[in-house]
Hints:
Blueprint: E1 2-4, H1 10-20, E2 24-29, E3 36-41, H2 44-56, E4 62-65, E5 80-82
Parallel strand pairs: 2-5
Antiparallel strand pairs: 1-4, 2-3
Amino acid sequence: MRGRVQGVGFREFVRTEAASRGITGWVRNSDDGHSVELVAEGEDDVLAALVERLHQGPRFAHVEAVDCEYSEASCGFARFSMEM
Length: 84
């Protein structure tokens, strides 16, 4: 995600949205200061619902773009976490 997505609670927003849907993976701020990265694993329809929410973001965010790349799941995550 790019835009005003750092310093506005975006990672916590993503963690909450993903965990409530049973999605596993992680979310973290990018070093560029203007984007957030995430890896998410779950059912296709559930991931699509998460992507829809990512376009909205939390109250003070302004999401300019959500870029998605799909691949085979690694099944390597026990839960969804926020990385620093």
